[in-house]
Amino acid sequence: MDITRLVARRSTCLRRQVGAVMVKDKNILATGYNGTPSGITHCDVTGCLREQLKVPSGQRHELCRGLHAEQNAIIQAARHGVNISDSVLYCTDSPCVICTKMLINAGIRKVIYLQGYADSLSMEMLEEAGIEAFLFDHVVSGG
Asked: Which residues are identified as catalytic?
């Protein structure tokens, strides 16, 4: 989880720094942090559209210049031809519903996070899909 926190420090998001690390068989497969797509001006330069529009956290995800950390980790794996099916996602925040849908279809088998995110539907969908989700403090060593 320390690596996940370190990855989050790369974020240029003005609202929250999130990091994600995908692991399988004790090997890091991909990492991601929340931020704008490659070649796009960062929000620390342009300002935060969501702040300007007073959009509450967990709502209207489309009103953001950036991608979420989980999305960037999935994209990084795809770009490099890395199979993330049956991997474990370590993330600083529990995923939103958009990321949850992507994680389900990517075949992620477990999500371990440091803090919750204001999106109860995502947790319901993870449970329905049979994907284990744990708050890091409650994970047994070696989990």
From this structure: 70
